[in-house]
Amino acid sequence: MSLLQMENISKTYSGNQVLKSVTLNIKAGEIHGLLGENGAGKSTLMNILFGMPVIHSTGGFEGNMTFDGKPYLPKTPMDAMKMGIGMVHQEFMLIPGFTITENIKLNRENTKDTFLSKIIGPKLEKLDLPKMKEESKEALNKLNMTVDEYLPVAGLPVGYMQFIEIAREIDKTNLKLLILDEPTAVLTESEAAQFLEVIKNLSNMGIAILFITHRLDEIKQVTDSITVLRDGSLVKSIETKNVDIVEMARLMVGREISFETSNKKEIDLDEKPFLELKDLYVNMPGEKVKGVNLKIQKGEILGLGGLAGQGKIGISNGIMGLYPTQGTILKDGKEMPLNNPREMLNNSIAFLSEDRKGVGLLLDEPIDFNIAYTSIEIQEKFIKNIGPLKIVNGKEIKSHANKMIEDLDIRCTGSNQYTRFLSGGNQQKVCIARALTLNPEILLVSEPTRGIDIGAKKLVLDTLVKLNKELNMTIIITSSELAELRQISDRIAIITEGKVQSILPPDASDEAFGLAMAGKDISEVVD
Ligand SMILES: Nc1ncnc2c1ncn2[C@@H]1O[C@H](COP(=O)(O)OP(=O)(O)OP(=O)(O)O)[C@@H](O)[C@H]1O
Protein backbone atom coordinates (compact mmCIF):
# COMPACT_ATOMS: atom_id res chain seq x y z
CA MET A 1 0.00 0.00 0.00
CA SER A 2 1.13 3.54 -0.69
CA LEU A 3 2.41 5.62 2.21
CA LEU A 4 1.59 8.77 0.25
CA GLN A 5 -0.93 9.34 -2.51
CA MET A 6 -1.19 12.72 -4.21
CA GLU A 7 -4.01 12.73 -6.76
CA ASN A 8 -4.87 15.23 -9.49
CA ILE A 9 -2.87 18.01 -7.89
CA SER A 10 -3.18 21.36 -9.67
CA LYS A 11 -1.76 24.73 -8.65
CA THR A 12 -2.02 28.18 -10.17
CA TYR A 13 0.09 31.21 -9.23
CA SER A 14 -1.60 34.44 -10.34
CA GLY A 15 -3.18 32.88 -13.38
CA ASN A 16 -0.09 30.86 -14.28
CA GLN A 17 -0.89 27.14 -13.95
CA VAL A 18 2.30 25.49 -12.71
CA LEU A 19 0.91 22.04 -11.82
CA LYS A 20 -1.64 20.28 -13.99
CA SER A 21 -3.42 17.33 -12.40
CA VAL A 22 -0.28 15.59 -11.17
CA THR A 23 -0.36 12.21 -9.44
CA LEU A 24 2.41 10.90 -7.19
CA ASN A 25 2.47 7.69 -5.14
CA ILE A 26 5.14 6.65 -2.67
CA LYS A 27 5.48 3.35 -0.85
CA ALA A 28 6.72 3.07 2.74
CA GLY A 29 10.50 2.93 2.90
CA GLU A 30 11.07 3.43 -0.82
CA ILE A 31 13.41 5.96 -2.36
CA HIS A 32 11.46 7.86 -4.97
CA GLY A 33 13.12 10.28 -7.39
CA LEU A 34 11.29 13.38 -8.62
CA LEU A 35 12.71 14.67 -11.87
CA GLY A 36 12.06 17.65 -14.09
CA GLU A 37 13.70 20.65 -15.67
CA ASN A 38 14.08 23.95 -13.79
CA GLY A 39 10.59 25.31 -13.33
CA ALA A 40 8.83 21.97 -14.04
CA GLY A 41 6.98 22.24 -10.71
CA LYS A 42 8.92 19.90 -8.41
CA SER A 43 9.35 22.34 -5.52
CA THR A 44 5.74 23.50 -5.84
CA LEU A 45 4.51 19.90 -5.53
CA MET A 46 6.73 19.42 -2.48
CA ASN A 47 5.56 22.70 -0.96
CA ILE A 48 1.98 21.43 -1.23
CA LEU A 49 2.96 18.16 0.40
CA PHE A 50 4.75 19.98 3.23
CA GLY A 51 1.97 22.55 3.83
CA MET A 52 4.19 25.52 3.03
CA PRO A 53 2.52 28.91 3.67
CA VAL A 54 3.34 30.10 0.12
CA ILE A 55 0.77 27.63 -1.19
CA HIS A 56 -2.05 28.79 1.05
CA SER A 57 -1.27 32.49 0.76
CA THR A 58 -1.58 32.20 -3.02
CA GLY A 59 -4.98 30.55 -3.20
CA GLY A 60 -4.24 26.95 -2.17
CA PHE A 61 -4.33 24.03 -4.60
CA GLU A 62 -6.69 21.46 -6.08
CA GLY A 63 -6.55 17.70 -5.63
CA ASN A 64 -6.47 15.11 -2.85
CA MET A 65 -3.81 13.63 -0.65
CA THR A 66 -3.70 10.57 1.59
CA PHE A 67 -0.87 9.85 4.01
CA ASP A 68 -0.47 6.69 6.06
CA GLY A 69 -4.01 5.62 5.17
CA LYS A 70 -5.66 8.89 6.26
CA PRO A 71 -6.87 11.94 4.31
CA TYR A 72 -4.13 14.53 4.50
CA LEU A 73 -4.47 18.30 4.09
CA PRO A 74 -1.59 20.14 5.76
CA LYS A 75 -2.12 23.85 6.31
CA THR A 76 1.31 24.42 7.83
CA PRO A 77 4.65 22.60 7.95
CA MET A 78 3.79 21.78 11.58
CA ASP A 79 0.85 19.66 10.32
CA ALA A 80 3.21 17.83 7.99
CA MET A 81 5.79 17.27 10.71
CA LYS A 82 3.17 15.91 13.10
CA MET A 83 2.32 13.28 10.50
CA GLY A 84 6.00 12.29 10.25
CA ILE A 85 6.99 14.21 7.14
CA GLY A 86 10.28 16.09 7.12
CA MET A 87 11.70 18.37 4.45
CA VAL A 88 15.09 19.77 3.65
CA HIS A 89 14.63 22.75 1.35
CA GLN A 90 16.71 23.87 -1.60
CA GLU A 91 17.55 27.06 0.23
CA PHE A 92 18.85 26.65 3.74
CA MET A 93 16.55 27.34 6.64
CA LEU A 94 19.13 27.49 9.40
CA ILE A 95 19.49 30.34 11.89
CA PRO A 96 23.00 31.70 11.37
CA GLY A 97 23.60 33.03 14.90
CA PHE A 98 22.66 29.70 16.51
CA THR A 99 25.05 26.82 17.05
CA ILE A 100 24.79 23.57 15.12
CA THR A 101 23.13 21.89 18.12
CA GLU A 102 20.64 24.74 18.56
CA ASN A 103 19.70 24.49 14.90
CA ILE A 104 19.29 20.72 14.98
CA LYS A 105 17.16 20.94 18.12
CA LEU A 106 15.22 24.09 17.23
CA ASN A 107 11.66 23.86 18.60
CA ARG A 108 12.36 20.33 19.81
CA GLU A 109 14.78 21.19 22.60
CA ASN A 110 15.41 18.53 25.22
CA THR A 111 14.41 19.77 28.65
CA LYS A 112 14.69 18.52 32.19
CA ASP A 113 12.67 19.17 35.29
CA THR A 114 13.56 21.93 37.68
CA PHE A 115 12.21 22.42 41.15
CA LEU A 116 9.78 25.09 39.87
CA SER A 117 8.68 23.14 36.80
CA LYS A 118 7.45 20.34 39.02
CA ILE A 119 5.15 22.83 40.71
CA ILE A 120 4.28 25.33 38.00
CA GLY A 121 4.52 23.23 34.86
CA PRO A 122 6.71 22.44 31.87
CA LYS A 123 7.26 26.10 30.91
CA LEU A 124 9.84 26.34 33.67
CA GLU A 125 11.78 23.26 32.64
CA LYS A 126 15.37 23.91 31.84
CA LEU A 127 17.25 23.00 28.66
CA ASP A 128 19.08 19.71 28.92
CA LEU A 129 22.16 20.92 27.07
CA PRO A 130 24.32 17.79 27.47
CA LYS A 131 21.49 15.66 26.07
CA MET A 132 20.90 18.09 23.20
CA LYS A 133 24.58 17.97 22.34
CA GLU A 134 24.75 14.22 22.60
CA GLU A 135 21.75 13.66 20.34
CA SER A 136 22.95 16.24 17.83
CA LYS A 137 26.33 14.54 17.72
CA GLU A 138 24.59 11.22 17.16
CA ALA A 139 22.63 12.61 14.20
CA LEU A 140 25.80 14.16 12.75
CA ASN A 141 27.63 10.87 13.24
CA LYS A 142 24.97 9.05 11.22
CA LEU A 143 26.04 11.34 8.38
CA ASN A 144 29.72 10.64 9.13
CA MET A 145 30.14 14.34 9.78
CA THR A 146 32.93 15.36 12.06
CA VAL A 147 32.23 18.95 13.04
CA ASP A 148 32.04 20.48 16.49
CA GLU A 149 28.37 20.68 17.36
CA TYR A 150 28.86 23.86 19.39
CA LEU A 151 30.07 25.93 16.40
CA PRO A 152 27.77 28.67 15.15
CA VAL A 153 26.23 28.01 11.75
CA ALA A 154 27.09 31.47 10.37
CA GLY A 155 30.05 31.34 8.04
CA LEU A 156 30.16 27.56 7.66
CA PRO A 157 30.58 26.38 4.07
CA VAL A 158 27.33 25.61 2.30
CA GLY A 159 28.13 21.88 2.13
CA TYR A 160 28.13 21.69 5.92
CA MET A 161 24.80 23.49 6.16
CA GLN A 162 23.21 20.80 4.04
CA PHE A 163 24.37 18.06 6.38
CA ILE A 164 23.14 20.01 9.40
CA GLU A 165 19.69 20.38 7.88
CA ILE A 166 19.58 16.66 7.23
CA ALA A 167 20.87 15.90 10.72
CA ARG A 168 17.97 17.96 12.08
CA GLU A 169 15.47 15.85 10.16
CA ILE A 170 16.93 12.48 11.07
CA ASP A 171 17.02 13.51 14.73
CA LYS A 172 13.20 13.44 14.66
CA THR A 173 11.87 10.19 15.97
CA ASN A 174 8.55 9.87 14.13
CA LEU A 175 9.97 10.44 10.65
CA LYS A 176 8.16 8.39 7.96
CA LEU A 177 8.88 10.42 4.84
CA LEU A 178 11.80 12.73 4.21
CA ILE A 179 11.64 15.16 1.31
CA LEU A 180 15.06 16.16 0.05
CA ASP A 181 15.05 19.03 -2.43
CA GLU A 182 18.40 18.83 -4.24
CA PRO A 183 20.38 17.72 -1.20
CA THR A 184 23.53 16.82 -3.08
CA ALA A 185 23.76 19.96 -5.21
CA VAL A 186 26.11 21.58 -2.71
CA LEU A 187 28.14 18.48 -1.94
CA THR A 188 31.33 17.28 -3.59
CA GLU A 189 31.27 13.95 -5.40
CA SER A 190 32.71 12.04 -2.46
CA GLU A 191 30.39 13.73 0.04
CA ALA A 192 27.47 13.00 -2.25
CA ALA A 193 28.48 9.34 -2.44
CA GLN A 194 28.61 9.22 1.36
CA PHE A 195 25.26 10.96 1.49
CA LEU A 196 23.64 8.44 -0.86
CA GLU A 197 24.73 5.68 1.51
CA VAL A 198 22.97 7.52 4.33
CA ILE A 199 19.80 7.73 2.27
CA LYS A 200 19.92 3.99 1.61
CA ASN A 201 20.32 3.35 5.34
CA LEU A 202 17.34 5.56 6.14
CA SER A 203 15.27 3.67 3.61
CA ASN A 204 16.39 0.36 5.14
CA MET A 205 15.13 1.72 8.46
CA GLY A 206 11.68 2.09 6.82
CA ILE A 207 11.81 5.85 6.14
CA ALA A 208 10.58 6.74 2.65
CA ILE A 209 12.64 9.31 0.79
CA LEU A 210 11.41 11.71 -1.84
CA PHE A 211 14.55 12.75 -3.61
CA ILE A 212 14.83 15.70 -5.98
CA THR A 213 18.12 16.02 -7.79
CA HIS A 214 19.39 17.09 -11.17
CA ARG A 215 22.13 14.45 -10.98
CA LEU A 216 20.61 11.60 -12.92
CA ASP A 217 23.38 9.15 -12.05
CA GLU A 218 22.36 9.51 -8.40
CA ILE A 219 18.73 8.86 -9.29
CA LYS A 220 19.74 5.71 -11.15
CA GLN A 221 21.99 4.61 -8.32
CA VAL A 222 19.68 4.92 -5.31
CA THR A 223 16.03 5.26 -6.25
CA ASP A 224 13.48 2.44 -6.48
CA SER A 225 11.14 4.39 -8.72
CA ILE A 226 10.85 7.80 -10.32
CA THR A 227 8.24 10.36 -11.33
CA VAL A 228 9.04 12.76 -14.16
CA LEU A 229 7.36 16.17 -14.52
CA ARG A 230 7.53 18.46 -17.54
CA ASP A 231 5.94 21.94 -17.63
CA GLY A 232 3.79 21.09 -14.62
CA SER A 233 2.40 17.84 -16.04
CA LEU A 234 3.13 14.25 -15.16
CA VAL A 235 5.18 12.61 -17.91
CA LYS A 236 5.74 9.20 -16.37
CA SER A 237 6.05 7.20 -13.14
CA ILE A 238 8.25 4.17 -13.57
CA GLU A 239 10.45 1.72 -11.66
CA THR A 240 14.06 2.83 -11.89
CA LYS A 241 15.31 -0.54 -13.04
CA ASN A 242 13.28 -0.15 -16.23
CA VAL A 243 14.81 3.14 -17.35
CA ASP A 244 18.36 4.31 -18.13
CA ILE A 245 19.88 7.77 -17.72
CA VAL A 246 19.55 8.77 -21.37
CA GLU A 247 15.87 7.88 -21.30
CA MET A 248 15.39 9.83 -18.05
CA ALA A 249 16.93 12.93 -19.64
CA ARG A 250 14.71 12.50 -22.68
CA LEU A 251 11.59 12.18 -20.54
CA MET A 252 12.51 15.34 -18.64
CA VAL A 253 13.45 17.54 -21.52
CA GLY A 254 11.37 16.00 -24.29
CA ARG A 255 14.35 15.78 -26.67
CA GLU A 256 17.78 14.12 -26.92
CA ILE A 257 20.66 15.82 -25.08
CA SER A 258 24.20 15.46 -26.36
CA PHE A 259 27.30 16.18 -24.31
CA GLU A 260 30.54 17.24 -25.85
CA THR A 261 33.75 16.11 -24.24
CA SER A 262 36.81 18.22 -23.48
CA ASN A 263 37.24 21.73 -24.76
CA LYS A 264 40.92 21.93 -23.85
CA LYS A 265 43.31 24.27 -25.68
CA GLU A 266 47.07 24.60 -25.26
CA ILE A 267 48.12 27.25 -22.77
CA ASP A 268 51.50 28.94 -23.19
CA LEU A 269 52.88 28.94 -19.69
CA ASP A 270 55.98 30.92 -20.72
CA GLU A 271 53.93 34.04 -21.36
CA LYS A 272 53.46 36.65 -18.66
CA PRO A 273 50.52 35.56 -16.48
CA PHE A 274 47.32 37.60 -16.71
CA LEU A 275 46.38 36.90 -13.11
CA GLU A 276 48.90 35.85 -10.53
CA LEU A 277 48.28 34.84 -6.94
CA LYS A 278 51.29 34.91 -4.63
CA ASP A 279 51.14 33.36 -1.21
CA LEU A 280 47.39 33.99 -0.93
CA TYR A 281 45.77 33.45 2.45
CA VAL A 282 42.01 33.65 2.84
CA ASN A 283 40.22 33.34 6.13
CA MET A 284 36.91 31.92 4.94
CA PRO A 285 35.34 29.71 7.62
CA GLY A 286 35.55 26.07 6.61
CA GLU A 287 37.39 26.88 3.35
CA LYS A 288 40.67 28.42 4.49
CA VAL A 289 43.30 29.20 1.86
CA LYS A 290 46.81 28.81 3.23
CA GLY A 291 49.40 30.11 0.84
CA VAL A 292 48.22 29.59 -2.74
CA ASN A 293 50.53 30.39 -5.64
CA LEU A 294 48.91 30.28 -9.09
CA LYS A 295 49.55 31.78 -12.51
CA ILE A 296 46.61 32.06 -14.86
CA GLN A 297 47.17 32.94 -18.51
CA LYS A 298 45.10 35.35 -20.61
CA GLY A 299 42.20 33.55 -22.25
CA GLU A 300 42.58 30.46 -20.12
CA ILE A 301 39.80 28.49 -18.46
CA LEU A 302 41.29 27.30 -15.20
CA GLY A 303 39.34 24.79 -13.14
CA LEU A 304 39.61 24.71 -9.34
CA GLY A 305 38.70 21.35 -7.86
CA GLY A 306 39.14 19.47 -4.60
CA LEU A 307 37.12 18.17 -1.71
CA ALA A 308 34.85 20.38 0.37
CA GLY A 309 36.58 22.27 3.13
CA GLN A 310 40.00 22.09 1.45
CA GLY A 311 40.02 25.71 0.27
CA LYS A 312 38.97 25.66 -3.39
CA ILE A 313 35.91 27.83 -2.66
CA GLY A 314 38.00 30.27 -0.61
CA ILE A 315 40.24 31.25 -3.52
CA SER A 316 37.67 33.15 -5.62
CA ASN A 317 36.02 34.57 -2.51
CA GLY A 318 39.44 35.83 -1.44
CA ILE A 319 40.36 37.29 -4.84
CA MET A 320 37.06 39.12 -4.78
CA GLY A 321 37.76 40.39 -1.26
CA LEU A 322 34.71 38.88 0.39
CA TYR A 323 36.69 37.33 3.27
CA PRO A 324 39.84 38.65 4.96
CA THR A 325 42.70 38.02 2.55
CA GLN A 326 46.47 38.43 2.64
CA GLY A 327 49.15 37.96 -0.01
CA THR A 328 49.51 39.46 -3.46
CA ILE A 329 47.14 39.50 -6.42
CA LEU A 330 48.58 40.79 -9.70
CA LYS A 331 46.40 41.44 -12.73
CA ASP A 332 48.45 41.96 -15.86
CA GLY A 333 51.41 42.78 -13.61
CA LYS A 334 49.50 45.41 -11.61
CA GLU A 335 48.95 44.85 -7.92
CA MET A 336 45.27 44.67 -6.98
CA PRO A 337 43.93 46.06 -3.71
CA LEU A 338 42.92 43.33 -1.30
CA ASN A 339 39.63 43.06 0.58
CA ASN A 340 37.87 45.49 -1.73
CA PRO A 341 35.15 43.91 -3.88
CA ARG A 342 34.18 47.17 -5.54
CA GLU A 343 37.76 47.75 -6.74
CA MET A 344 37.88 44.24 -8.18
CA LEU A 345 34.72 44.98 -10.18
CA ASN A 346 36.28 48.28 -11.30
CA ASN A 347 39.27 46.27 -12.48
CA SER A 348 37.00 44.12 -14.64
CA ILE A 349 36.97 41.08 -12.40
CA ALA A 350 33.48 39.67 -11.77
CA PHE A 351 32.32 36.89 -9.49
CA LEU A 352 29.42 34.48 -9.55
CA SER A 353 29.21 33.24 -5.98
CA GLU A 354 28.36 29.70 -4.91
CA ASP A 355 26.10 31.26 -2.29
CA ARG A 356 23.26 32.53 -4.42
CA LYS A 357 21.06 33.34 -1.45
CA GLY A 358 23.61 35.36 0.52
CA VAL A 359 24.91 37.62 -2.23
CA GLY A 360 22.35 36.82 -4.83
CA LEU A 361 19.29 38.46 -6.14
CA LEU A 362 17.09 41.44 -5.44
CA LEU A 363 14.02 39.27 -4.98
CA ASP A 364 11.50 42.08 -5.20
CA GLU A 365 12.87 43.44 -8.45
CA PRO A 366 12.22 42.08 -11.93
CA ILE A 367 14.57 39.84 -13.86
CA ASP A 368 15.75 42.59 -16.23
CA PHE A 369 16.80 44.94 -13.43
CA ASN A 370 18.55 42.11 -11.60
CA ILE A 371 20.54 41.32 -14.70
CA ALA A 372 21.48 44.95 -15.34
CA TYR A 373 21.97 46.68 -12.00
CA THR A 374 25.61 45.79 -11.24
CA SER A 375 26.60 46.92 -14.72
CA ILE A 376 24.63 50.16 -14.27
CA GLU A 377 26.37 50.79 -10.93
CA ILE A 378 29.90 49.84 -11.86
CA GLN A 379 30.16 50.55 -15.56
CA GLU A 380 27.40 53.05 -16.23
CA LYS A 381 26.15 50.59 -18.81
CA PHE A 382 22.52 51.00 -19.98
CA ILE A 383 22.70 54.75 -19.22
CA LYS A 384 21.79 57.36 -21.81
CA ASN A 385 22.54 61.05 -21.69
CA ILE A 386 19.75 63.47 -22.33
CA GLY A 387 21.41 66.87 -22.20
CA PRO A 388 23.09 67.07 -18.80
CA LEU A 389 20.90 64.26 -17.44
CA LYS A 390 21.85 60.63 -17.20
CA ILE A 391 18.94 58.27 -17.31
CA VAL A 392 18.60 54.52 -17.33
CA ASN A 393 17.77 53.14 -20.74
CA GLY A 394 14.90 50.78 -19.93
CA LYS A 395 14.49 49.69 -23.52
CA GLU A 396 18.11 48.60 -23.80
CA ILE A 397 17.90 46.74 -20.47
CA LYS A 398 14.81 44.90 -21.61
CA SER A 399 16.23 43.86 -24.92
CA HIS A 400 19.48 42.72 -23.27
CA ALA A 401 17.51 40.77 -20.64
CA ASN A 402 15.42 39.12 -23.33
CA LYS A 403 18.57 37.98 -25.08
CA MET A 404 19.93 36.52 -21.82
CA ILE A 405 16.58 34.83 -21.14
CA GLU A 406 16.86 33.19 -24.53
CA ASP A 407 20.58 32.33 -24.35
CA LEU A 408 20.33 30.76 -20.90
CA ASP A 409 16.79 29.44 -21.34
CA ILE A 410 15.49 31.23 -18.24
CA ARG A 411 11.95 29.88 -17.74
CA CYS A 412 9.79 32.84 -16.77
CA THR A 413 6.63 34.70 -17.72
CA GLY A 414 8.72 37.61 -19.07
CA SER A 415 11.66 39.88 -18.23
CA ASN A 416 9.44 41.87 -15.84
CA GLN A 417 8.75 38.89 -13.56
CA TYR A 418 10.07 39.30 -9.99
CA THR A 419 12.93 36.95 -9.31
CA ARG A 420 11.27 35.85 -6.04
CA PHE A 421 8.79 33.90 -8.16
CA LEU A 422 11.32 32.01 -10.24
CA SER A 423 12.26 28.42 -9.53
CA GLY A 424 15.65 27.92 -7.83
CA GLY A 425 17.42 26.88 -11.01
CA ASN A 426 16.07 29.82 -12.94
CA GLN A 427 17.17 32.22 -10.19
CA GLN A 428 20.64 30.79 -10.58
CA LYS A 429 20.52 31.51 -14.30
CA VAL A 430 19.64 35.16 -13.57
CA CYS A 431 22.76 35.39 -11.35
CA ILE A 432 24.83 33.99 -14.20
CA ALA A 433 23.29 36.49 -16.63
CA ARG A 434 24.14 39.34 -14.25
CA ALA A 435 27.80 38.31 -14.03
CA LEU A 436 28.01 37.89 -17.82
CA THR A 437 26.48 41.31 -18.41
CA LEU A 438 29.51 42.90 -16.74
CA ASN A 439 31.49 41.41 -19.61
CA PRO A 440 34.57 41.19 -17.39
CA GLU A 441 38.12 40.42 -18.46
CA ILE A 442 38.29 37.86 -15.69
CA LEU A 443 35.22 35.93 -14.63
CA LEU A 444 35.29 33.91 -11.42
CA VAL A 445 32.46 31.39 -11.29
CA SER A 446 31.79 29.18 -8.33
CA GLU A 447 29.53 26.14 -8.70
CA PRO A 448 27.82 27.67 -11.76
CA THR A 449 25.58 24.73 -12.53
CA ARG A 450 24.52 23.80 -9.03
CA GLY A 451 20.80 23.12 -9.04
CA ILE A 452 20.53 23.51 -12.77
CA ASP A 453 18.88 20.84 -14.89
CA ILE A 454 20.77 18.72 -17.34
CA GLY A 455 19.69 20.64 -20.45
CA ALA A 456 20.33 24.07 -18.96
CA LYS A 457 23.66 22.91 -17.55
CA LYS A 458 24.93 22.38 -21.05
CA LEU A 459 23.71 25.86 -22.01
CA VAL A 460 25.57 27.45 -19.08
CA LEU A 461 28.83 25.60 -19.80
CA ASP A 462 28.51 26.32 -23.52
CA THR A 463 27.97 30.01 -22.71
CA LEU A 464 31.17 30.11 -20.65
CA VAL A 465 33.13 28.44 -23.45
CA LYS A 466 31.62 30.84 -25.99
CA LEU A 467 32.63 33.91 -23.94
CA ASN A 468 36.08 32.48 -23.54
CA LYS A 469 36.44 31.81 -27.27
CA GLU A 470 34.80 34.90 -28.68
CA LEU A 471 35.90 37.53 -26.16
CA ASN A 472 39.07 35.80 -24.92
CA MET A 473 37.58 36.08 -21.42
CA THR A 474 39.76 34.50 -18.73
CA ILE A 475 37.65 32.21 -16.58
CA ILE A 476 38.32 30.58 -13.24
CA ILE A 477 35.67 27.99 -12.54
CA THR A 478 35.33 26.34 -9.13
CA SER A 479 33.23 23.22 -9.04
CA SER A 480 32.70 20.13 -6.95
CA GLU A 481 31.82 18.24 -10.11
CA LEU A 482 35.03 17.05 -11.64
CA ALA A 483 33.25 16.00 -14.85
CA GLU A 484 32.16 19.59 -15.37
CA LEU A 485 35.68 20.95 -14.81
CA ARG A 486 37.06 18.39 -17.24
CA GLN A 487 34.48 19.36 -19.83
CA ILE A 488 35.52 23.00 -20.17
CA SER A 489 38.86 23.68 -18.43
CA ASP A 490 42.27 23.97 -20.04
CA ARG A 491 44.00 23.08 -16.78
CA ILE A 492 42.64 21.99 -13.41
CA ALA A 493 44.25 22.93 -10.10
CA ILE A 494 43.38 20.59 -7.27
CA ILE A 495 43.34 22.28 -3.89
CA THR A 496 44.06 20.33 -0.71
CA GLU A 497 44.65 21.69 2.76
CA GLY A 498 44.45 25.25 1.49
CA LYS A 499 47.23 24.86 -1.09
CA VAL A 500 47.60 23.88 -4.73
CA GLN A 501 48.27 20.16 -4.58
CA SER A 502 48.66 19.56 -8.34
CA ILE A 503 47.76 21.13 -11.64
CA LEU A 504 46.45 18.55 -14.08
CA PRO A 505 45.27 18.53 -17.69
CA PRO A 506 41.54 17.79 -17.96
CA ASP A 507 42.28 14.48 -19.67
CA ALA A 508 44.49 13.19 -16.82
CA SER A 509 43.36 9.84 -15.43
CA ASP A 510 40.72 9.40 -12.73
CA GLU A 511 43.46 7.90 -10.63
CA ALA A 512 45.58 11.06 -10.88
CA PHE A 513 42.66 13.25 -9.85
CA GLY A 514 41.77 10.87 -7.04
CA LEU A 515 45.32 10.88 -5.65
CA ALA A 516 45.62 14.67 -5.94
CA MET A 517 42.35 15.16 -4.09
CA ALA A 518 43.54 12.85 -1.36
CA GLY A 519 46.64 15.05 -1.04
CA LYS A 520 48.97 12.39 -2.43
CA ASP A 521 51.88 12.50 -4.83
CA ILE A 522 50.77 11.92 -8.43
CA SER A 523 54.20 11.60 -10.08
CA GLU A 524 53.83 7.85 -10.53
CA VAL A 525 50.59 8.09 -12.48
CA VAL A 526 51.33 11.24 -14.55
CA ASP A 527 54.09 11.63 -17.18
N1 LIG B 1 5.60 32.00 -5.14
C1 LIG B 1 5.46 31.92 -6.47
N2 LIG B 1 4.74 32.82 -7.16
C2 LIG B 1 4.59 32.76 -8.50
N3 LIG B 1 5.13 31.78 -9.26
C3 LIG B 1 5.87 30.84 -8.65
C4 LIG B 1 6.08 30.86 -7.23
N4 LIG B 1 6.85 29.80 -6.91
C5 LIG B 1 7.12 29.14 -8.06
N5 LIG B 1 6.51 29.76 -9.11
C6 LIG B 1 6.53 29.33 -10.52
O1 LIG B 1 6.13 27.98 -10.55
C7 LIG B 1 6.84 27.26 -11.56
C8 LIG B 1 7.40 25.99 -10.96
O2 LIG B 1 8.44 26.33 -10.05
P1 LIG B 1 9.12 25.25 -9.09
O3 LIG B 1 9.96 26.02 -8.11
O4 LIG B 1 8.10 24.35 -8.57
O5 LIG B 1 10.06 24.49 -10.14
P2 LIG B 1 11.13 23.34 -9.90
O6 LIG B 1 10.76 22.20 -10.77
O7 LIG B 1 11.29 23.06 -8.47
O8 LIG B 1 12.45 24.02 -10.50
P3 LIG B 1 14.01 23.99 -10.02
O9 LIG B 1 14.58 22.71 -10.50
O10 LIG B 1 14.60 25.15 -10.78
O11 LIG B 1 14.03 24.18 -8.55
C9 LIG B 1 7.90 28.21 -12.10
O12 LIG B 1 7.44 28.69 -13.33
C10 LIG B 1 7.95 29.32 -11.09
O13 LIG B 1 8.25 30.56 -11.71
Automatic annotation (TrEMBL):
Which domain of life, per UniProt?
Answer: Bacteria
What is the scientific name of the source organism? Tissierella pigra
What SUPFAM superfamilies does the entry give? P-loop containing nucleoside triphosphate hydrolases (SSF52540)
Q: Has UniProt tagged this entry with the keyword Transmembrane?
A: no
InterPro entries documented for this protein? AAA+_ATPase, ABC_carbohydrate_import_ATPase, ABC_transporter-like_ATP-bd, ABC_transporter-like_CS, P-loop_NTPase
Q: Which GO MF terms are attached to this record? A: ATP binding; ATP hydrolysis activity
Keyword annotations for this protein, in alphabetical order, are: ATP-binding, Nucleotide-binding
- Protein name per Swiss-Prot or TrEMBL: Sugar ABC transporter ATP-binding protein
Every ABC transporter domain range: 4-522
